[in-house]
Amino acid sequence: MKIFILSAMLSSAVAAPPPEPARQQALRNLLKHDCGACHGLTLKGGLGPGLRPADLADKSNEFLTATILRGRPGTAMPPWNRFIDKSEAAWLVEILKNPQP
Asked: Which of the four pLDDT bands, split at 50, 70 and 90, describes residue 29?
């Protein structure tokens, strides 16, 4: 039983492979133009909160992924699940929290 539980925990912690390079570029464009329209082109905030690493540090990856996919009812944050899947939303969270130069 212990082995099964450990195995289940480890399998849920394994990250999905990153999107293909062309899709990564499309997602970066979505982040810059679509997300940037509300969160600011430099992601420092605007209509929506800032999306810089310091702004996101206290939020779990799961919470942020769910927010991207489902939106935030009662706010201007729309759901994006018609345009991106869960692994792509998780990849966006990773690049927001750990930006590359």
From this structure: very high
Note the pLDDT of residue 50: 97
Domains of the chain: 20-97 (1.10.760.10)
Name the more confident of 54 and 100.
Answer: 54
**Contact, 12 vs 3, CB < 8 A?**
no
Q: How far apart are CA 36 and CA 48, in angstroms?
A: 9
Cα(80)–Cα(36) distance, rounded to whole angstroms?
Answer: 14
Residues with Cβ within 8 Å of residue 77, at least 6 apart in sequence: 38, 48, 67, 71
**Which single residue is written with the structure tokens 């992601």?**
43
Q: For helices 86-97 and 21-29, what crossing angle results, to 10°?
A: 70
Whether 26 and 18 have beta carbons less than 8 Å apart is answered as: no
d(CA 60, CA 39): 19
